[in-house]
Specification:
Blueprint lengths: L3 H11 L2 H18 L6 H10 L8 H10 L6 H5 L5 H12 L5 H8 L10 H12 L8 H10 L1 H18 L6 H20 L1
Helix pairs in contact: 1-3, 2-3, 2-8, 3-7, 3-8, 6-7, 7-8, 8-10, 9-10, 10-11
Keywords: Hydrolase, Iron, Metal-binding, Nucleotide-binding
Catalytic activity: P(1),P(4)-bis(5'-adenosyl) tetraphosphate + H2O = 2 ADP + 2 H(+)
EC number: 3.6.1.41
């Protein structure tokens, strides 16, 4: 794998200034969250830095790549193409930058929808994207507080918040988010019963 500074320069050129700065903050947040979790810091840093690799692509380009490469698996992705920036980004990173670390690609692929079962890396990238210091939305203080206590409970709060947001706007719910939430809820329930 190339030095992280190489990837930083790539995304600096590829993304808007605002998106680039967001990516740097996500990387800082993810590294901080990963400290006590025994994760490979290089994987965490790379996945966080590159998570929005395809975010600035226009919807028609996301759809074109998604259709051509068989990446679109759900109707929600056709109707709301922004949901494709994770899966398309993972595919492009493999093709264009020759990223082959499947754990990194998976965390990028699912950083918007979640999936199950989620690895610790998947959880960190999903949450760091929502928690980075530049984010200011209703409920972020609660999410930060919960994540400081328990990452899994924070992830459940994040899924619930996402579902409320989508329902209020009459948007399609991505099936992977529902499956990820149900899987996590069962994990938390099982852990609670084991105590």
């Amino acid at each position: 794998m190339k030095d992280l500074s190489y990837y930083k320069e790539i995304i600096k050129e590829k993304l808007s200034k605002k998106r680039f700065e967001h990516s740097l903050r996500v990387a800082e947040t993810a590294l901080e969250m990963a400290k006590s979790r025994g994760l490979d810091e290089e994987q965490v840093h790379l996945a966080a830095l590159l998570h929005d690799y395809a975010k600035d692509l226009p919807s028609d380009e996301l759809l074109r790549i998604g259709r051509k490469k068989g990446i679109i698996l759900y109707k929600a992705e056709e109707v709301q193409p922004d949901l494709l920036h994770g899966p398309v980004g993972a595919w492009l990173l493999k093709q264009e930058l020759e990223i082959t670390d499947e754990a990194v690609l998976q965390a990028i692929r699912y950083h918007t929808t979640g999936h199950y079962p989620m690895t610790e890396l998947d959880k960190i990238i999903y949450l760091a994207d929502l928690l980075e210091p530049g984010r200011t939305y209703e409920g972020i203080a609660s999410l930060r507080a919960i994540c400081a206590e328990n990452i899994d409970k924070g992830l459940l709060f994040a899924f619930d918040s996402t579902l409320r947001y989508v329902l209020e706007r009459k948007m399609l719910i991505h099936p992977l988010t529902v499956e990820a939430r149900n899987w996590l809820l069962l994990q938390l329930h099982d852990n609670f019963n084991d105590e």
